[in-house]
Amino acid sequence: MEIYTCLFVFCCFAVMLCMDRLYASKNNILLKDHSTENRAKRTLSGGSYCRLRGCCPGRDDGCTFLYYARNATCYCDAFCSSGPPGSVDCCPDFWTVCRGHPITASSVLAGCFKGGRYYEEGATIQDNCNSCKCMSSKWNCLEETCLVQPNLIKQINDGNYGWKAKNYSQFWGMSLKEGFYYRLGTFPPSAALLDTRQVMENLITETDFPEFFVASYEWPGWIHDPLDQRNCAASWAFSTASVAADRIAIGSKGRFTDNLSPQNLISCDTRNQLGCRGGSINGAWSYLKKYGLVSHACYPLFWNQSDPAACGVSSVTDAAGKRQATRPCPNALEPSNRIYQCGSPYRISSQETDIMKEIKENGPVQAVMHVYRDFFLYKSGIYKHIRGTGGQLQHENHRRTHSVKIVGWGALPDANGQKQKFWIAANSWGSSWGENGYFRILRGENECDIEKLIIATKCHL
Predict the structure, then answer these.
(1) Which residues are the signal sequence here (predicted)?
(2) Reduced to 3 DSSP states, what percent helix, strand and coil does the chain have, rounded to the nearest 5?
């Protein structure tokens, strides 16, 4: 009897040992299946899993179920949805419970995901400046360089560059090529313009000037804030009209403070100019001297949307050599169609102190500069084009010319306590861009060629 008892105990022990090994073997299989590299692809099946467990955000390796139909583990976390429904390791009811997508047999192996959303096979979406089409459960996208890229903005803001970047909604969806084409518009200076004799003052030093100078503080109410050229590539017209308007106000001691009309130049200065497709500043100054401009109130921007290229003003020369308008303003609500003219433009030396002297004595000046992609993202601080040794901040070959108005200067210590000198300039991208439409840029080092070509003028009153 004792022998049979021992044999029975032994047999029970053996059975338990075998079951334990079998269970351990099964666990090893499940653990292997649980690993990220070896998650098996499974097909759709019925059953309640996520409905009972709940849906987990992000990656949660504890948000699981034993999927007995496949002898594996399935997941109810958001991390499982890296492919089309049924082709990865989400639990069978994940898509209906956690995503709310009805799944049919025909959609099990087709479709793409973007931002947690499922798109059917053949769907087309816009991804910033590129369009993407879902083909064979993969996104096929155009590969244009976008004007705005969040990772570039983050890289600038996380770095110690002295300025901050912003994601501007007006630039989102535009390619870099479109930004250059639509938002700038000043032709590179001609050889003749670059050979113009420069006005120089060699006897002045930086100590002869205040550390800070802003034209709007020196001449309050006479300096005109930036306008918005929108997607009209005519910075050549905006910068010219604005500099002339400021100098007329200063020269007349406040008797004439009208802002001048860039649209007058865009629509009427057509000799070798392309309007909203680009133009030269020397052509703009030549037109301003010969024909003059009316005010911005008289000839508003984009006033005639049906035919914006049609010139809306005309004039003749009177006995005194002044232009007189022969038609009322395009804007019927503005009674004054007075025409303002300026003399021939002159070039200021690229010396920092010569530029400062001209601004302090006679008013803002016009500058032609190079624009790189990071300039579009400028929000605040002292701008300097980022010339990295690698990565996405390097775009030395991607640049175009642009013209702006310099209104003053200043100096501030940087993060390391070093003195940083800067120009204060007005852009033509509206008040929502930069520092209320203005920007500061490194001074005294010809940053982006901003000191290479400085233009000023004297205007008839």
Answers:
(1) 1-24
(2) 30, 25, 50
Tens-digit pLDDT profile for residues 377-413: 999 999 999 976 444 444 455 789 999 999 999 999 9
Cα maximum dimension of the chain: 142
| Upper half-sphere CA count for residue 10 (Cβ side, 13 Å) | 6
Q: What's this model's pTM, rounded to 2 decimal places?
A: 0.76
| Closest-CA residue to 168 (of 182, 151, 150, 184) | 150
Q: Could you list the active site residues?
A: 402, 427
Q: Distance between CA atoms of 258 and 294, rounded to whole angstroms?
A: 9
- Name which of 92, 101, 283 is nearest 185 in CA terms: 283
**Cα–Cα distance for residue pair 238/234, rounded to 1 Å:** 7
Q: Kindly write down the DSSP assignment for every residue of 91-150, as one continuous string.
A: -TTHHHHTS-----GGGTT--EEETTEEE-TT-EEEETTEEEEEETTEEEE--PPBS--H
Residue 73 has a pLDDT of 80
Under 8 Å between Cβ of 223 and 246: yes
Answer yes or no: are the C-beta atoms of 412 and 422 closer than 8 Å: yes
What is the identity of the amino acid at 145? T
Question: Alpha-carbon distance 72 to 144, whole Å?
Answer: 43
| 348-380 pLDDT tens trace | 999 999 999 999 999 999 999 999 999 999 999
For the chain, helix (H) and strand (E) counts, in that order, are 12, 19
Answer yes or no: are the C-beta atoms of 234 and 275 closer than 8 Å.
Answer: yes
All domains of the chain in start order, with CATH? 2-108 (no CATH), 110-142 (no CATH), 152-456 (3.90.70.10)
> Strands 454-456 and 346-348, how do they pair?
antiparallel
Strand 438-442 relative to strand 378-383, pairing = parallel
Both tokens of residue 196?
């113009």
